[in-house]
Write a sequence for this structure.
């Protein structure tokens, strides 16, 4: 399946939507893709600015955000004035969108190999990850070019709407996408089950304070189970829309197309929030922010208030709040 912009254009090329509906689809696509572009660019900028974030685990997140950023960029750009740029727009968007969900599989693999298999050699696999992600994305993009013709409509390029072209789109995009979803789901299930078992075994020998810390850590770890839901939520409507369009090519569903375009274009934003905005990123930003100094001053002033005034003006010291989530790879695992 082509990326969101290509998908919208392939729908409109068949003449199934009125001009007003086309403008709505275009606005949804540009708006959602812009949010993803901003979110992904923020994670990329954090990685480049903060040296303490340049660990192997976050390096994978950086490449994920980089892929999302270019995927969103090429999805946003409009109709090229000639055929060369039409090809470049479509193929580039397809390449980076495939690379995006492939990077999520490398993150899942790293967690599984570190937590479940207790291997410490994941950093040695960096070059293999690049070969796997960029190589697979390139192969899928080249295969997708077979049997396709291109044109333009309004602000989009679109690919051929024949059954052969649609089948190739499905094979080169949705097949690896749902393969990645299944792999991520199975991998995170094993990681979470492993850590749950370890926590239950440790409950009997830890004191109460450590048990509370363990429950806090497990609450954060269980959030990993939601990561596969990002791809599911982003592309379920696209999958249904592509299947419907394949079976009923002349009967377009406008609402389904809006959901398809909107959620698919938000994939980069979802990834940047789930994978990128972890405690390490927030801590790096906070340490360089003048806000932390203001909070310290406010805390000192507040401590001098009479007890009665404190009841009327409660204050929460953000810097002393217990960290309720952990990095991509738990510190206890990294220390092994």
């Amino acid at each position: 399946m082509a990326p969101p912009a290509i998908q919208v254009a392939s729908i409109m090329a068949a003449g199934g939507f009125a001009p007003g509906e086309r403008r709505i689809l275009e606005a949804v696509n540009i708006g959602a893709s812009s949010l993803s572009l901003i979110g992904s660019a923020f994670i990329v900028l954090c990685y480049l600015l903060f040296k303490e974030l340049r660990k192997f685990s976050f390096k994978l997140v950086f490449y994920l955000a980089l892929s999302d950023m270019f995927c969103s960029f090429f999805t946003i750009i409009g109709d090229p004035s000639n055929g060369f740029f039409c090809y470049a727009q479509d193929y580039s968007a397809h390449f980076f969108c495939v690379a995006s969900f492939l990077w999520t599989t490398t993150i899942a693999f790293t967690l599984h190999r570190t937590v479940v298999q207790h291997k410490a050699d994941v950093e040695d696999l960096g070059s293999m990850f690049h070969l796997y992600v960029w190589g697979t994305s390139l192969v899928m993009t080249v295969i997708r070019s077979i049997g396709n013709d291109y044109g333009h409509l309004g602000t989009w390029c679109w690919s051929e709407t024949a059954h052969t072209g649609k089948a190739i789109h499905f094979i080169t995009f949705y097949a690896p996408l749902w393969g990645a979803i299944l792999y991520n789901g199975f991998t995170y299930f094993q990681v979470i089950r492993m850590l749950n078992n370890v926590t239950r075994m440790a409950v009997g020998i830890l004191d109460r304070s450590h048990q509370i810390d363990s429950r806090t850590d497990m609450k954060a770890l269980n959030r990993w189970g939601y990561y596969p839901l990002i791809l599911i939520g982003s592309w379920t409507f696209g999958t249904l829309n592509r299947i419907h369009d394949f079976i009923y090519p002349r009967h377009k569903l406008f609402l389904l197309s809006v959901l398809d375009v909107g959620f698919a274009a938000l994939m980069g934003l979802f990834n940047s929030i789930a994978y990128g905005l972890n405690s390490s990123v927030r801590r790096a930003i906070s340490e360089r922010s003048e806000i932390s100094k203001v909070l310290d001053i406010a805390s000192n002033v507040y401590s001098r208030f009479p007890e009665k005034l404190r009841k009327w003006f409660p204050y929460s010291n953000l810097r002393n709040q217990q960290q309720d989530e952990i990095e991509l790879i738990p510190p206890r695992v990294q220390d092994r």
Q: What stands out?
A: The beta strands are 150-153, 156-159. Confidence is low (pLDDT under 50) at residues 4-15, 151-155, 315-327, 329-336.
